[in-house]
Amino acid sequence: MSNPTIDLLRHHRSIRAYLPKAIKQDDIDSIISAASSASSSSFLQCSTIIRITDQDKRTKLAHYAGDQSYVASAAEFWVFCADFNRHYQLDQTLSLGKAEQLLLGCVDTAIMAQNAVIAAESLGLGCVYVGGVRNNIDQVTELLALPKFVLPLFGLCIGHPDQNPEIKPRLPKELVFFNNEYQAVDKDALAQYDQQMNQYYHQRSEHKKAGGWSDKLPSIINKEQRDFMLSYLHKQGWITK
Q: Which part of the chain is the Nitroreductase domain (predicted)?
């Protein structure tokens, strides 16, 4: 069973090449409206989007994010932030800095961003998330003048696609959807998925790789990755208690 919304969701691709074409203001407004309509825990609305129109800042953010050129060239680049500073401005007696608030901010902001992506894709636009804004998070914080209790989680490029990448296969239902309790990995399902991914990597038009999904996990998870994050969070007022 399918419908246009499900088809749109199932055909998501990350777009990293864009035509030099601006996005209509009406479309930008529609995307923002869709993002703002996302669910919010206890209606705290603890997320903020910073649209980057200054080209110098765009260039710096592209460099900070690992020299990802599309950050500078996409029609739009937005930085999504968890934000309790807005609440702090309204009442400085609030008890902030709790671990649960970090979770709320991350969850709410991710839901908001996914609404934005779905809205953009429904308009024929392409998007890619950019977690690399956290690579040099101190510099990003300074560049965007982010006060305490604001956390830049990721960026989002939006633009008119100039590529048509293949759809990357996802983990099968047997590995991500359980009934009533957590279940051990289904090794047969994983082996089939690894074979599927190996075939995908071999056949895709760009950035060909070899191997399955599971054999790449150690190189991704075990490498040193943003070990400065805990101290940064404390400095910004997050998870201090």
A: 10-160
